[in-house]
Design a protein that fits this description.
This protein is mostly helical. The protein contains five helices and no strands.
């Protein structure tokens, strides 16, 4: 049964669209990875908290690509449960990161001075991040 809202899609067309969407998802994950590396490098060079935060956000987006792994395992090995498990892993990570940010446990919003390239300098820089915020 076909309607103007939801047309009937043939199985061949459905498979074609599925492959296209997977290619788009893989390309997006690859782009976000490169974008994150570039933003973090630029943020570290400019001591920019905004660029560092943007780069870290790009890595969070890449981590959500774990759903693609679940879909791949489902398609190749028939593991129907892999996709829901991947979604639960992402949910747990997102909640954990959100709670840490809510409590102020992240040092992502620190602007480190140029000489805070070692753990000792980061602890002494007064940014509030403490030891381990910056490493060699």
């Amino acid at each position: 049964m076909s309607s103007p809202i939801m047309p009937v899609v043939s199985p061949r067309r459905r498979a074609e669209l599925n492959q296209r969407s997977l290619r788009l998802a893989y390309a997006t994950a690859g782009y976000n990875l490169l974008e994150g590396v570039a933003a973090i490098a630029a943020g570290a060079a400019a001591s920019s908290a905004a660029l560092l935060g943007f780069g870290l956000d790009s890595f969070v987006e890449v981590s959500s690509a774990i759903v693609l792994i679940g879909l791949l395992l489902n398609a190749t090995l028939g593991w129907w449960w892999a996709d829901p498990v991947a979604a639960l892993v992402i949910a747990v990570v997102a909640v954990r990161e959100g709670l840490q940010a809510w409590r102020g446990e992240q040092c992502d919003d620190c602007v480190l001075p140029a000489d805070a390239t070692t753990t000792a300098n980061a602890a002494a820089c007064g940014c509030g991040c403490g030891a381990g915020c910056a490493t060699n």
